[in-house]
Design brief:
The protein is α/β, with parallel strands linked by helices. It has nine helices and nine strands. Helix content is 32%, strand content 14%. The longest helix has 19 residues. It starts with 11 loop residues before the first helix and ends with a helix. The structure holds N-carbamoyl-L-aspartate. N-carbamoyl-L-aspartate (NCD) binds next to helix 2.
C-alpha cells in the first residue's frame, strides 16, 4: 500500500494487517518498556522558534517521537469551531503528552478539566509561559550560583508579555527584589496608579518587594542589578494598533555600569531593546546559554510528566 486515500482501495489482507498491527501497538502502549516510543504532540497556534524546537529537541533526546502542528490555529479543527475539550480528548488518543501554545488563554483551564494526558503550557495568550520562567530561573542560578537576595530588573512589555508574568511569580518564591521598567504607553501607570491593576503580575501576585522605574532613568540602577531581563514589545497583541517606541534599551556603552557578576537575559525574539553589540559580552546569556538551558529544563519536565502515572 502506497497511499491511503479511500477506504475502497483496501483489500481484505491489508485490513487484517492494519488490525493486527493495531493490536500489537495497543498492547505495547501499556508496556513500561515502551517509554522510548512515547509521542509528544506539539500543538502550536502561535509562532515559535525556541519553545517549539526546544521541546521537540527534548523529545528527540528522550527517544520520543513528535507530532507537530506549527500553525494549529488555522490548520486544526479549532478553526472549524471545535472545542478545546474535543481537541484535547482527540489528541490524547494519538500521543502521551501535548505541548500547547495558543492565543486563547483559556486552553489551560480546558486542559485541566478535559485532557487525559499531560498538557504543557507553551504560552497561553498574554497570561503565562511557565517553562520559560523555569528556564530563566534555572539560568540565573547557573550563571550566578545562587538565587538569594536577587535584584532583578524586568523591562519591556509588562502588559502583554507573558514571560514576565510567569517569571514574576517564580521570582517571588525566592524573595527577589524586582524593578519593573515598563514601556511607556502601556497603561500610563506613572500618572495613574489605578492602572497597576492591569499588570497581571501586580493583580495576581503579591510581590513583597517591587518598584517601578521610568525607562529613561532605569540605567541609573543598572549597577545594582544581578539580573537584567529584557522583553520585546508585543505589538501583535495590541488591539489599538499603537506602536510603542519608548522603552528601555540596553546599549553596549552601559555594560560597564553593570556588576561583573550579573546576567543579561531575554526570552527572545528581540526587537531593538538589546543592542547587538552586547551579544558577545560574557554576561549576555540570552543567545546561547539561556536557550541551551531551555533544552535541559524541557527534557526534565517531559521526563517528570511521563514517568509519573497520570490520572
Ligand atoms: C516569548 C513568548 O512567546 O512569549 N518567546 C519565547 O517563548 N521564547 C517571548 C516573546 O514572544 O516576546
Amino acid at each position: 500500500m502506497k497511499h491511503l486515500l479511500g477506504i475502497r482501495q483496501l483489500e481484505e489482507s491489508a485490513i487484517t494487517e492494519i488490525f493486527s498491527h493495531a493490536d500489537r501497538i495497543a498492547r505495547e502502549f501499556h508496556d513500561p518498556f515502551y517509554h522510548n516510543h512515547k509521542v509528544m504532540i506539539s500543538f502550536f497556534g502561535e509562532p515559535s522558534t525556541r519553545t517549539r524546537f526546544s521541546f521537540e529537541a527534548a523529545a528527540v533526546h528522550l527517544g520520543m517521537r513528535t507530532l507537530t502542528a506549527a500553525d494549529a490555529s488555522v490548520s486544526s479543527s479549532l478553526k472549524k469551531g471545535e472545542t478545546w475539550k474535543d481537541t484535547f480528548r482527540t489528541l490524547g488518543q494519538y500521543g502521551d503528552v501535548i505541548v500547547c501554545r495558543h492565543s486563547d488563554e483559556e486552553f489551560t483551564r480546558a486542559a485541566e478539566m478535559w485532557s487525559r494526558i499531560p498538557v504543557i503550557n507553551a504560552g497561553n495568550g498574554h497570561d503565562e509561559h511557565p517553562t520559560q520562567a523555569l528556564l530563566d530561573v534555572y539560568t540565573i542560578k547557573k550563571e550566578l550560583g545562587h538565587l538569594d537576595n536577587l535584584k532583578v530588573m524586568i523591562c519591556g512589555d509588562l502588559r502583554y508579555g507573558r514571560t514576565v508574568n510567569s517569571l514574576s511569580y517564580l521570582l517571588k518564591r525566592y524573595g527577589a527584589h524586582v524593578y519593573y521598567v515598563p514601556a511607556v504607553g502601556l497603561g500610563g501607570w506613572k500618572n495613574d496608579p489605578t492602572e497597576l491593576k492591569f499588570y497581571p503580575q501586580m493583580a495576581k501576585c503579591d510581590m513583597p518587594y517591587h518598584e517601578f522605574l521610568d525607562p529613561y532613568i532605569a540605567h541609573l540602577k543598572l549597577e545594582e542589578m544581578d539580573v537584567v531581563y529584557l522583553t520585546r514589545i508585543q505589538n501583535e497583541r495590541r488591539e489599538d494598533g499603537v506602536i510603542v517606541k519608548d522603552y528601555f534599551k540596553l546599549h553596549a556603552s552601559r555594560l560597564k555600569e553593570m556588576k561583573e557578576k550579573s546576567v543579561i537575559l531575554h526570552p527572545l525574539p528581540r526587537g531593538d531593546e538589546i543592542d547587538t553589540a552586547c551579544d558577545d559580552d560574557p554576561r549576555a546569556a540570552y543567545h546561547e546559554r539561556q536557550v541551551r538551558n531551555g533544552l535541559y529544563v524541557r527534557v526534565a519536565i517531559l521526563k517528570m510528566l511521563l514517568d509519573r502515572p497520570y490520572n
